[in-house]
Amino acid sequence: MFLDNNKYSKEKSRERCMNYWNPSRTQYWYDEGIGIMIGRREGYYFWDLDGKKYMNLHLNGGTFNLGHRNKEVLERLYEASREFDIGNHHFGSVTRGYLAEKLVKLSTKGMQYAIFSSCGGEAVDVAIKTVRYATKRRKIVSLEKCYHGHTGLALNTGDPFFKDPFLCGEGDEDFVQVPMNDMNAMEAVLKKEDVAGVIIETVPATYGFKIPESGYLKGVKKLCEKYGTLYIADETQTGMMRSGTLWAISLEGVDPDVIVCGKGLSGGIYPMSATIMTKEAGKWVEEIGRLHTSTFGGSELGCAVAGKVLDITTRESTAANVSMLTKYMKEHFDKLKMKYPNFFTDYTQRGLIIGLSFHVKDGGRKMMRALAEHGVWAINARFDEYVLQFIPGLLCTKEYCDELFEKLEKSMVDVLEREEMRK
Ligand SMILES: Cc1ncc(COP(=O)(O)O)c(C=O)c1O
User: Is the pLDDT of residue 7 over 70?
Assistant: First the structure.
């Protein structure tokens, strides 16, 4: 097997990745002291090839919502592989039709079509093509410090940090960013009536899972309706029950025109994402549907897997577990806040979408490193130096939380001690 053969030792793998895969990325994590080469994985744990065990509190942004190598999802893959493969992207198919109907029926009011892709970025690209075709306008508005993927159109909606090195978007007036919670700034752009779509991640991950002010997203949707713009809810991370309901946007009382869904839909097993749209937004699929194709998007095996993922995700027991975990985590964070008021200053939480704020310079990154030492993998927020993204799985147990809380507090104490020594 792959993982118990010396050929695949950590050092050998590192060497190969440095020479043939992505040297600067590989080195970056070694420099951070988190040079993981991922080996065995199971449930909400994984092991470095050197044997160190980690609790997974990033889950690839929710990709492993149901845990690593979820047995039911794997079973569905094995079963489906007896009959299906990728399938033929020109034709409809049993699994594609089945998943599209299931997703549409589980989505917000007015949804009619689901178009499949292989990743979140590609699904965002489809969303942008969708709103442009429907409105015959080019401009797309996104929020500052947002992230919607690294593919072509998606990258253009994002921060210069990711765009500029690749010479994307410079001088491109089709992509405009406005600050979150600033309704006037949003209206100033929309009122020119040349904006095709507004794309917003319901609780923006890269911005530290900041929760939009009450009524902000609803207000943006109203402005969209007033000025003929379509609203795209990017639920790549926030969808799939992470908020305690299937789509976080439902908690805002907004029925978007388009929903983007990815990551967790794959079950962490088979790449799968979807752009779900209303009939009005989805004019292109009625009129020129053959002009967008993705060879692997809507793979039949992927659709079969995603169908099972949706079944598990929408079970009453799953929602109940998320609700239990939400309360349990909140209670614990409140206690920690009381105990370390000048350090653990705040947290944001929408169900299991959580950002923890640590008030020292680069607090998020320092906590990421300390947690890794204690065997917990969680990543800092790119655009808020104080925040650590905290992404527990939907099916975690109380015992898992208890183990986690202990490691979290130990890591906090470590960071505080190091800060004291630095003074
Ligand atoms: C909100 C959001 N949108 C889109 C994407 C892009 O997804 P992918 O990496 O699957 O292309 C991500 C990935 O992290 C994301 O968090």
Answer: no
Name the pTM for this structure.
0.97
Which residues line the pocket of ligand 1, CB cutoff 6 A? 61, 119-121, 124, 147-149, 201, 205, 234, 236-237, 262
Same domain? For 127 and 152 the reply is yes
Domain end, chosen from 252, 284, 313, is at: 313
What percent of the chain is predicted at pLDDT more than 90? 96
- Distance of alpha carbon 287 from alpha carbon 292, whole angstroms: 12
311 pLDDT more than 70: yes
Asked if 270 and 166 sit in the same domain, the reply is yes
* Same domain for 332 and 309: no
Q: How confident is the model at residue 5 (pLDDT cuts 50, 70, 90)?
A: low
The residue whose CA is least distant from atom 8 of ligand 1 is 120
Q: pLDDT-based confidence at 2, cuts 50/70/90? A: confident
Q: Could you tell me if residue 13 is inside a domain? A: no
Q: Which of 262, 285, 313 is the last residue of a domain?
A: 313
The CATH number of the domain where 45 resides is what?
3.90.1150.10
Question: 64 CA to middle of ligand 1, Å?
Answer: 14
Give the separation between CA 279 and CA 171, rounded to whole angstroms: 33
Encode pLDDT of 219-229 as tens digits: 999 999 999 99
Residue 2 lies in a domain: no
The residue contributing the CA closest to ligand 1 atom 13 is 149
In sequence order, what DSSP letters do the residues of 207-252 get, joined into one string?
A: TTSPPPPTTHHHHHHHHHHHHT-EEEEE-TTTTTTTTSSS-GGGGG
Task: Report which ligand 1 atom has the smallest distance to the Cα of 273.
Answer: 10
Question: Which of 153, 234, 236, 265 to mutate to test ligand 1, by most ligand atoms within 8 A of the CB atom?
Answer: 236
Give the domain extent around 44: 32-62+317-422
**Integer Cα distance of 175 and 124 in angstroms:** 14
pLDDT in tens, 114-131: 999 999 999 999 999 999
Give the number of the atom of ligand 1 that is nearest the alpha carbon of residue 235.
Answer: 1
Is a pLDDT exceeding 90 seen at residue 1? no
CA–CA gap between residue 315 and residue 370 (Å, rounded): 35
308 and 362, same structural domain? no
Among 209, 237, 238, the mutation site with the greatest number of ligand 1 atoms within 8 A of its Cβ is: 237
Residues 305, 352, single domain; the answer is no
What ligand 1 atom has the least distance to the C-alpha of 146?
1
Compute, in angstroms, the gap from residue 149 CA to the centroid of ligand 1: 5
74: left (phi over 0), alpha (psi -120 to 50) or beta: alpha
Average pLDDT over residues 341-355: 97
pLDDT at 319 over 70: yes
- CA of 232 from ligand 1 middle (Å) equals 14
Same-domain status, 403 and 306: no
CATH number at residue 279: 3.40.640.10
Cα-to-centroid distance, 237 and ligand 1 (Å): 7
